Structures are given as C-alpha cells and as structure tokens.
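User: Structure with zinc ion, tokens only please.
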Amino acid sequence: MPDVFADLVGQDEAVDTLRRAAAAASAVLRAAAVAPTTDSDGDGSDALAEESDGPPTSAAADAGAGMTHAWIFTGPPGSGRSVAARAFAAALQCAYGTGCGACPGCHTTMTGTHADVRMVVPEGLSIGVNEMRALVLRAASTPSGGRWQVVVISDADRLTEAAGNALLKAIEEPPPRTVFLLCAPSTHPEDISVTIRSRCRVVPLGQPSPDAVAEVLVRRDGVTPDVARWAAAAAQGHVGRARRLARDPEARKRREAVLAVPRRLTGVGAAFDAASALIEAAEAEAEASVAEADAAERAALETALGAGGTGRGAAGAIRGAAGQLKDLEKRQRSRATRAQRDALDRALVDLAGFYRDALTMALRAPVAPVHTDTAALAGAGAQKWDAEGTLRRLEAVLECRTAIEANVKPRIAVEAMMLALWKG
Ligand SMILES: [Zn+2]
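Assistant:
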C-alpha cells in the first residue's frame, strides 16, 4: 500500500499540515510515555489542552503544539474531505512515521478495520442524537492500540441540532486520547455550528485541478490518458465522479441523457417531459444504488429475529420484531431520499456545466469547456441565446439546486427550471 495520503489529489498544503500534526501527535505519545508524571493519571491528557493557564511547561505540551483534538475538513464535493480525514486517522495510528501505508496501524485504518477508528457515514438526511451519543460514549474509552481513538464524521453538516450538542459536549471536554475529525462543505454556520467551529482547527481543501485529477486516474486506476483528461474535465474537479465517468458505462449514459436536455426543449410539453425524465432517471439511479444494501439489511434483521419460527415464543418475538423492521424501513427510506437527491444533484451539475460552456463561448472567454463532447452544441446555444439569455439559463439551473437543497419538492423545482431553460 502506498503512502496514506497518496489518494488525496492536489492538496499539498493540507497534507503538509496533517503530516506535521501527526508527527506532533507521536511526540505527545512519546513524551507521555517518558514522563508519566506530567499529569496525574499518566495518560497524557494535558498534552492536547489548548486552553491551559499560562505557557506550557511540560515536554508533552511542547510536543503537542502542532496537534489538537478536533478538526474540520472543508471543501467542495469531491475535493476529498473524507479521504483526507481517513488518511489523517491512519497517520495518527501509524507505528513508523506519519502515514507510511505499510504498518498494521495504517493498513487497518485504510481498510476500515482498525479497532480505534470509527467512520460515521450518514446514510439518511441527518445524523441523529442517539447515534451521536453512542458514538461519543465509545470514543471516550482507552484506545486499544495504545495510540488514539479517532472518530471521523463524514457529513458533519447533516448533524441534527441535538446530535450537534452531544458532539459539542465531547469536543468541549475531550477524553484524553480522543480525536474528532469532522467533514463539511464549509464552516458556514448552516454547515457547522459556530460553537463547534470555534473548538476545531480547520483544514481547507481546494478543488483539485483537472490535470491533478487526470493524473491520479491514470496512475491509480489505470485509465488511459485520453479518457482520464476527458473525465477529469467533465467531472469539474470531483475526483470520485471523474473515476465513475472513466470506468462506468452506465454513468456515461446517464450523463449523455442529461446533456441532451437543452436541445430537446422545444415547447411547454417537452419541458415537462424533460423534467419527468430527469426525476425518473435520478430515482432509478438511486434505487439501483441502495437496493442491494436494503435487501441485505432486511435479510440480516429477519435472520436475527428468527423469522419463520413457530411456537410459543415466536408470537412475542414477532411483535418486537415489527418495531425493529419499522425502524429499518424508516432508515432505508431516508437513505433512498438522500441517494435520489445526490443523483439529481449530479445531473444538475452536469447541466450547469453545459450552460457555463455556452456562457464562456458567448463571452469569448479563453476557458477550456467542461464538456468537450457537447462543446459544439453549447456554441450553437451561445449564438442563439446571446450572453444574457445564456446567463439566465445557467442561473435557472443553479436556482434549482438551491431550491432542492432548501427542501422544495424536486419535481416542482425541476419543472420550474425546465420552463426557464426553454423560455430563457
Ligand atoms: Zn504506518
């Protein structure tokens, strides 16, 4: 396995910061081992305290200067927030350096089996308070591997308010060896509460350049350079999306269908048809992505509950089971809704790219197109609509994204957008 930061594309500055922090964290552990008397229980709990009274005096506190117990990784979708957090978790568990990639600490963290690293990946629209309380409780235990307990929360912007408060309490009074790594689009108060933000160090990630994305597709995924360059541009800096476009024919087909929308808008009826097609495509994509997990979870739960059992105990078990099944179904619906929104959002980003191309052409801006394969079509649109009409269309797509994010019913938002795209 290569260095744990190898998959973090085009984020040199962030990698630098994280490596220094991991080195500082190791120094904290060494200092605590050498001088266990620096705090009463000998676990190094003072080492990461940021708000100590007066200047740090112990060796452990000096050593800990580059490290802190709570971090937020921010950046646009696809920039690698959770990749960065996982790599940093591995670097903290690394036995030999700052993320060698070869030792058991690195390896188990990267493959998701390290006993002291918890990855929270919310599948629904929000992370609830019960989940968070359980997590905080487990995170407070002593690390079994003797280094750090690391909790990675991959969409911290989806915390419910109550869950956020439970997390805040843990961050305010951190267990001695626990590190929280939060990922969110930004540190805007809508994404992360101001009080949590004030307790964390922020690692901002930028949108990686198409060249950097193409390079990693070639090196890591064995994609040919031509396809890699096309996919990197079409994905607009989203590394995971670029990989899917390069490798998954279904993803390419869906993108083509979306990019065919502008030339299909010939009237009101066509606009409504296009809206239906877009919504249904997102639903189908989402369903395909969650169907397997849904069935597996249901089967596992039914087995655990002993479905099909008979006899005196079975009736009571089934009554209890009904509640658990209901819970599961609720979680699965929430996950399906999230998957649908994500699929629809990907389509809207592709569509926005098309109108952005048309706009740069209308303005004769010397910028490479996002979608090289529909550049001619975008050029024709630019001539027909002129710059102002093109800009209005681009804005209609962006407004649709904003509306859906603000919980407007997707069909209503998409229909409004299609009409605006047709009328201009
Ligand atoms: Zn290692």
